[in-house]
Amino acid sequence: FDTPIDYAEKLYTLNSKDRVLLSFLSPHCRLCTSLRGDLDKVKKEREDLKVVEIDSLNRDDWAPELIRYNIEKVPCFVLLNSRGRAIGKTEDPINADFVRNALHALITEKRKKCSSMVVVKRHQHAYDESPAHRSIHIGSPLGQHSPSFGKHHHFHHHRDDNRPFWKRGSVQRVLLVVLLGGVGMVVWSSFRLHHVLTCRWHRSSRKSRADSEGFSRPFEPYQPQFLGVNELRRRDNECARLLGFPQIALLFLVHGQLPNEKIWYQWFQMMRDRIPVSESVLGRCEGNSRGDLVAREVLAKACVHDDASQDDVIGLQHGFDVWVHLPKGMDDDIFERSIFKQSLIPERYRVEATWGGHSLIDATRVLFAAALTNPLVSKLVLISDSDVPLYGPLVFYKQLVSESQSRINACNTTAGWDTNNYRLRQDLIEAGITETIWRKSWQWIALTRGHARIVLDDRKIDDIFRHLCRPRWDDDWCDFRVCYSDEHYIPTLLAIQGLDNETDCRGELTDRDWSRVKATDPHPYEYKPADISTDLFMKLRHAEIESCERSSMIQMTVGEQFRNISKVVGSKKSKTVALCGSLNQNPTPSYVPLGSVCPLLARKFSNSTHDLVESVLSKMLIH
To answer: Maximum distance among all alpha carbons in the chain?
Structure first.
C-alpha cells in the first residue's frame, strides 16, 4: 500500500492530462484481493493514470481521505483530475463483476452510461452579472447620476440586499447548515428512539408466540456423533453383492413411532424375493446363454430365506437398505414390535433433533453416514414419519436407480428460485453466502452417493449455517426472521461446489399440499379422514404433467423388470443353477422412467388416517 507521502508525490508530478485513481482497499478483503490483477493491468495500460493504493484499515494516516470521500465499504475507487479534485466515485461493491464494470466506467469516464458509479459534483456559488451591468460599473465616471446609471445601481443594490439568506455569505451558510443539521438530528433521533422502543415492545410481546411457533432458536453446537457411525458396518446384502445390483437407502428421520407402519409393512412384502434384471445383473451373461453356473446352495443361502421370520419383511427383501433415526433420549421400546426395530440407529450415535434447528442436519448426517457404510448403496432417500409411498417398491426402486441426478433443487435457473431471499440475512452475506449461491429446496430429498459424501465431509459451510441460519430476532426488520438449515444448507453446499447441474433442479421427491394452509404456516396441510380416497392418491401422482402421465401404466408393467429369485434357484435336487439362462428366459423390455418432477412419496398422513390410507393403497400398489 502507498503512504500519504507517495500520494503527495504523485499529485506533485501531475501534468494537465494526468488523472489520479484512489484505490481504497483492505488486506483482509477477499474481493479486494481478487481485483489485484485488474489494478496491475490498469497501471500497465494507462500511463496517464496514477494509481494510489490506500489501506482503509490504516485510519491514522488516511482518515482525511476516508472522511472526505465518504468511504464506507471497500473496494472503492475515486478518480481525481489533474488539479486533485474528485470527478467520480464507484458505488458500494456487490460482487467482483460489478466492481470491475464500475472501475472500467470510472477510468474511461463514461459516467452517463454507467449505472454503477456516482459522479462527485462541485457546486460553485457566484453572481451571474450581465455584460450591461458590468459595463456601467466599469465605464461610468464616479459621481455621474444619469438615469441609466441610477436605475442599474438601484437594481444591483436591490439584488444584493434581497438575496436569499443562504447566499449572503459564508457565515450565513454555516449557520443554515448547523440549523438544518440540528433539526435533522432531532428528527432522526426521535425516529430512532421510536423505532427502538417499538421493536422492544414487539420483541417482548411476540416472544411467547415466536417460541411456541418455532421463530426463535438458540445456537446448536456441533454434534460429531456421525463420525463414529462406521462402527455400525452391517454385513453386505449377499444377494445384491453376488448378482451385482445396487441398493437404495431409505432413511427415516422420525420423532416417534411411524403412524403408517402397516403400509410400509405391505410395501416391503411386495419386494420379497424380487431381484432387478438390470444391466449390472445381465452384463455378466453377455454371449453366455446357458453358462455362468452358480452353486445352488450359495445362491439360495444369499437370496432365499425360507426359515426367516415372516415379520422381518425388511430383511426378506434385497433392494433397500433401511435406517431409522429416533431423537436422542427417546425410549427404543416404542419400536419393540416394529418392523423397523433392526433398522434403528443405536442411541449413542443419535442427536437431539429439534424442528427448525440445525440439529436436523446433524440427524440427517448420521443417517447418511450409516447408509454409506454399505458400498452397494447408490442413492439415499430421506423420508419423514408422515410419508406414504405413491408407488409400489418395484417402481420406486427402478425409478431412483434410473435417475443419475439427485432429487434436490441446487439451481438458480428454475422459476421462483430467489423467492426465499428474504431469509438471507446480511451476516450470512458477509460470511460469503451471497445471493448468487443461496439456494432453497425441500427438506425431503434423494441424493446420489457422491453428493451425500460431500455433506459428510463439509465443516466450513456447516459452521456458517449452524451459527447464522436459524430463526432469530432481526433489529433491522423489527421482527423475528426465519432461516431453516434443512431447506437451505445442502442445496447451497452443492451450488458452492459447482454441482448445480448434477441435481434435477426441482427436488420434487415428496408431494405436499400448501394450498390449504396460511402463507406463514411452517407446515403443509395434514390430510383428514374425509380427504382419503383413491382419487386423492391418483391426483397426488400428477398424471396431468407430461412426464407423469404414464404413472398408472408403469405401475402395471414394472413387474417385467424383476425376477422371483425363488423360482430362479429352483428345486433342491439341482446342485447348480444356470443363472444366465434363468434370468434370460424372457426378454426384458427397457424401462422408460417417469420425469423427476413426478413425486414418489406424499405427506402429511397422521394417526387419524392410517387405516384408511392402508385400505386405499393396498389396492393401488399392485407391485
So the answer is: 143
Helix/strand number for the chain, H first, E second? 23, 18
Which DSSP symbol is given to 228? G
Q: Give the pairing of strands 247-253 and 320-325.
A: parallel
What distance in Å separates the CA atoms of residue 258 and residue 203, rounded to the nearest whole number?
A: 37
Residue 264 CB coordination number (10 Å): 24
Helix (H) or strand (E) holding 36: helix 36-45
Choice between 140 and 548, residue whose per-residue pLDDT is larger: 548
Least confident stretch, 191-195, 457-461, 478-482: 191-195
The residues, any chain, with a CB within 8 Å of residue 228's CB and separated by 6 or more, are 348, 349
Helix axes 460-468, 359-371, angle to 10 degrees: 150
Q: How far apart are the first and last CA of the chain?
A: 72
Please, is 265 exposed, middle or buried when counting C-beta atoms within 10 Å of its C-beta (0-12, 13-18, 19+)?
middle
Q: What is the CA radius of gyration of the chain?
A: 36
- Closest by CA to 448, choosing from 316, 275, 596, is 596
Work out the pLDDT band at 254, boundaries 50, 70, 90. very high
pTM over 0.85: no
Name the phi and psi angles at 562, rounded to 5: -130, 160
- Angle, vertex CA 521, rays to CA 519 and CA 523, nearest 5: 125
C-alpha 13 chain-centroid distance: 52
pLDDT range class, residue 441, cuts 50, 70, 90: very high
Distance, CA of 78 to CA of 50 (rounded, Å): 12
Model pLDDT, residue 539: 94
